Amino acid sequence: xxxxxxxxxxxxxxxxxxxxxxxxxxxxxxxxxxxxxxxxxxxxxxxxxxxxxxxxxxxxxxxxxxxxxxxxxxxxxxxxxxxxxxxxxxxxxxxxxxxxxxxxxxxxxxxxxxxxxxxxxxxxxxxxxxxxxxxxxxxxxxxxxxxxxxxxxxxxxxxxxxxxxxxxxxxxxxxxxxxxxxxxxxxxxxxxxxxxxxxxxxxxxxxxxxxxxxxxxxxxxxxxxxxxxxxxxxxxxxxxxxxxxxxxxxxxxxxxxxxxxxxxxxxxxxxxxxxxxxxxxx
Length: 282
Hints:
Layout: E1 2-4, H1 7-19, E2 24-29, H2 35-47, E3 50-55, H3 75-84, E4 89-91, H4 95-98, H5 117-120, H6 124-139, E5 143-147, H7 151-163, E6 169-173, H8 193-198, H9 201-215, H10 220-234, E7 237-245, E8 258-267, E9 270-279
Parallel strand pairs: 1-4, 2-3, 2-5, 3-4, 5-6
Antiparallel strand pairs: 7-8, 8-9
Helix pairs in contact: 6-7, 9-10
């Protein structure tokens, strides 16, 4: 695996790849890689000839009360994982490359960023959309692979690509999970041993809520209330628990059939997010 740290070297390497008629798949990350990330690398290998990944802890997607300095940095371990799973090139830009002065431009995808994590973390998705578009312009991949654990983020990126006519196929990969259902996440590192035993309750609650939606015997308001009560009873503090339609992530109505339940909850120092997408049959 080749490692490059500046834009000139990145473009030189990728121009050589394109000159050979090869396709490029891209997996952007913030490092501290786990099995979920590596699942994305494996899927990227299936979609293109060469896999490019990046590690950049993006400052513009962290809020005022979020400590970017505490984000885990595990570069050497990350490199070993990427090599083992077939990544061909790793891009390691710094803040000066990603946000050259004067830093005056931001990218905003409206509407679908106002609820859920967008409500809890103002400005977060502006930071996400901005850095992803910058990385897309630098790498210029044929395909890009993202996990569906953050369903809202995936929807934001897919919408941005469609609205701006970017010639990139966006591929979503189902959430990687531990045997007990807990979604793989860098945030899991913040959990104590006792909290780790409790954490799978979030996905179990999502599963129960989805079954309740499918049965159509309870209102969405009642399902939501019972879900939040279940999380509280287990020791989690819900941030949000929203039953939405998959298209624009607005609150689902009784007429919507393709639904996604998006949830976030605090457990100790960790803020866990998860979702479950499903279809309600008439």
